[in-house]
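Attaching the record inline, Q. Sequence:
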Amino acid sequence: MKKIEVKKSKPKIILLVVGMNVFSILLVLTILLYITNIKKSILDNYNNQFQDEITRITQLGFNQTVASMERNDLIDYLKTKNSGLNNEMYADSSLFKSDYIGVYGLDNKIINHTNSAKIKEVDFVPKEALLALNKSGKSRFYLKTSDGIIQVFGIIIKKSNDTINPKAEGYFILARKIDLPFKQRIEKITNSTISVIGNQKNRAAKNYILQYKVDLKDYKNEFVARVYFERPFEKFIATILKSLYFILFISLLLLLVSFIYTEKWISIPLNAITKALETGNKESIEILKNTEGDFKNIGTLFEENAKQKSKLVKAKLKAEESDKLKSSFLSNLSHEIRTPLNAIVGFTELLMNTNLEDEEKLEYLSVIDKSGKNLIAIIDDLIEMSKIESHQAKPNYTAVNMESCIKDLYDSIKITNKKAQKIDFKLIESKKPAPYPIKTDEVKLKQIITNLVTNALKFTEQGSVEFGYEIDEANNRIVFKVKDTGFGIDENNQQYIFDRFRRVGGDHTSKIGGLGLGLAISKAYAEMLGGTITLESKLGKGTEFYFIIPLEYVKSQKITVQSVNELTISKGEEIGTILIAEDDNINFLLFQKLMKGKNFRIVRAENGQQAVDICFNNPNIDLVLMDIKMPIMDGFEALEKIAPIRPNLPIIAQTAFSSNEDKDRIFKAGFTDYITKPINRERLFEIIDASLKKKVS
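Structure, as predicted:
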């Protein structure tokens, strides 16, 4: 801090005393006026912040509640009164953190409900409120009932694909009673004291109390009650007052001793406070922090306030950037989904409405098949990313034969990826192969490598793509490498390559397409397995990805290479009778067409109960293809009834779910095997062949 030079003077004693007294009086008046001004300024500033904070919290609560209410299965519930959904929704009213759950039809009559002891009335939502909800789509309003003041959330039940002009099929209502526990919970969230007043008369705010009032209104926008949020602020003001009065005391004392230190001890800190309050000047805050006494506390407070403001600005910028990225992602998602759908619908219409040669039909069917697989890949990526973000994806560690794993991946990609057949696609031989199986998650490890290799093949027009691994026992890790001679990645974009809502690469990326989630999923999986992922790239020369996972041997097992099962069922063999439990006519027709040419006798069950009855009454059933989700009785319930009577009967689950958790549940239930939808013909007959052989043996 710059040293202040003060001119020395030696006035007569009387003039000195008079001058000091006059100066003291002026100083006292000035500081008191200043204290009064900054009290109001600080209080007004923080009161505005307090009001903004309460507004954001209440709006966030409304958005979260409405989001939890938007369920795609409610539209089916209105039609089927599905018992499973009924049990899920009404068994526990705390599912939606509410005291009342109700479903209404378009006739404005209640279909079903559940309520806690806090709300005794059943049908308390007026018809006019439901009509208003039909227009708005979603709303929050308040009602005064015999149970007290009730907070009501409502949304229309609509079809999930009806987003442009949603038409109401019914209404979904949640309600909470505004009682003492409710108020205490909100008080804890908002860090304030809440008072609910039944009239509109304004209540004056007390000194040093932050106050914000909110009127609770019903569906007609008429007054129901008024809520006051209040937060004490006297401690902060008291600290400032204490500091300033301390300054005043010191100034008077110092004036009596000498004018020499006035500038140093009083004027400079006060000027620093002024600049900090008016402009947030960092140098002023540092001056206060370097001053002894309560000025240092004030400087610390100003510094914390400045940091909070800086964090808010950064958070705002980050939120705005995130919104832009999400908008771009959604636009890209719409384009990527519509592209294969357009091909599927367009070429299907051509097949149905035009006379075509067999060669053209095969060409169109090939386009439809490729587009369908692209669409499935997009949906799989979206589902997997959703599981990663919601922390539902967890590693499933097993003993993995690393050499077999890598070679199987190479053979699979070499056969299935046309790009791999056009360029120099190589497997890097490991200098030191793993002598024992590795403890890791084989599915996620393969997915990381597949994503990186597929990405490399996409962006390599000529040259080579190669991948492999090396054991680094010195550092107790495994290093995987995927290298290509493709377009490369600009240095400025490399920091964004693993971001979930970004796509980098310019025109190349636009031409190739895709959601760009593969690398984000790979990074998430690598970190889930306890590793890291990095890259090196030069524009126009190619890219090299590295990812590292911990090395942990499973020495109790020996390395064995397992052969791939071959499909041995051929046309003309006498195989047996298969029961297909499938409620959807189109899916059943698909099974019929897939098995056309095989000597299977096909029997159909349209629900789980029929499947049980047919298995009980027909001992000649050799195998069951059991759909998991069926009316009357689902696949799990049907299995529980069939297994005790026909313990050796192979029962194959067919399901649209494919996560590790779903697979574990299927096998724990006792199914022989499973196949996921959409059905893969080769996989279907491989499972049937293996199951029938096992049954015979």
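Confidence is low (pLDDT under 50) at residues 1-18, 557-573. The chain is about 50% helix and 20% strand.

More tomorrow.
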